[in-house]
Design a protein that fits this description.
Layout: E1 4-7, E2 10-12, E3 18-24, E4 33-39, E5 46-52, E6 57-59, E7 67-72, E8 77-82, E9 91-98, E10 106-107, E11 111-115
Parallel strand pairs: 2-11
Antiparallel strand pairs: 1-3, 3-8, 4-5, 4-9, 5-6, 7-8, 9-10, 9-11
């Protein structure tokens, strides 16, 4: 079992930036992909961004052009750079390690991002 720990959340003004980190307790190379999801208050958890092992990325339409997902395999860490933040980006952000063979993914505990003036 791999433990995922997110960090980097906080309070930021609209238009500001944050970088989230997701540190894994073991290697992330063997996972199908590493992903970020978020859940706003009273909302369902939704997909934000994903990066596959060979670097291919995909994003939710709502964050395209503003968010960038990256990974450092040597540090077992995944990042989410968030620019031009909007109020609607306010949510708890979760890191996920997606596994092969339809196994349940691993999840972190989440980090709160609040966008407010």
């Amino acid at each position: 079992q791999v433990q995922l720990v997110e960090s980097g959340g906080g309070l930021v003004q609209p238009g500001g930036s944050l970088r989230l980190s997701c540190a894994a307790s073991g290697s992330i190379v063997g996972f199908k992909a590493m992903a970020w999801y978020r859940q706003g208050l009273g909302k369902e958890r939704e997909f934000v961004a994903r990066i596959l092992g060979y670097g291919v990325t995909n994003y939710a339409d709502s964050v395209k052009g503003r968010f960038t997902v990256s990974r450092d395999n040597a540090k077992n860490t995944v990042y989410l750079q968030m620019n031009n933040l909007k109020r609607e980006d306010t949510a708890v952000y979760y890191c996920s390690a997606e596994r092969y063979a339809f196994k349940e993914p691993y999840w972190g505990q989440g980090t709160q991002v609040t966008v407010s003036a």
